[in-house]
Amino acid sequence: MYNNKKIAFGAGIVQLNLAAINPLWVLEGNPVSRHKLVSTSADGTASTVFWDCTAGRFNWFYDVDETVYVTEGSVTIKDQEGSVHRMSAGDWIFFPKGSHAEWTVQTYVRKVAFCRAPLPKSVVFARRVYRVLKRLIGRGSDGAEAPAMFQDG
Q: Structure pTM?
């Protein structure tokens, strides 16, 4: 059981630290990226990162599931199938572990990234079996809905 229940607060401008993009991934320009890790889950499987980047074109390879929410600027994303999507402030993107994308930043982009290391397949299978058994005895849901705190009473 995890005992860290301390709520963390932040206010004001978040100071980002330089975080160079792998030079082998850079396709055009000289993009400068910065980031700040702002939270990590107690079990170490999830984290939240603020990130920004200046103009450039580069590949990005995802070693965790990452949900991105663009907060400022814009970026053009070319996915693995070659589809191109222009994303700007207010848009979100989900990149599953093992995927890759080509990022083209015309001027500047800033995002909040919610990262999660997927559970091993054996653990996912065990959780599914557990949920099915709970449903069969009438003591739980199928786990497909949002967490209880986001559900209507």
A: 0.78
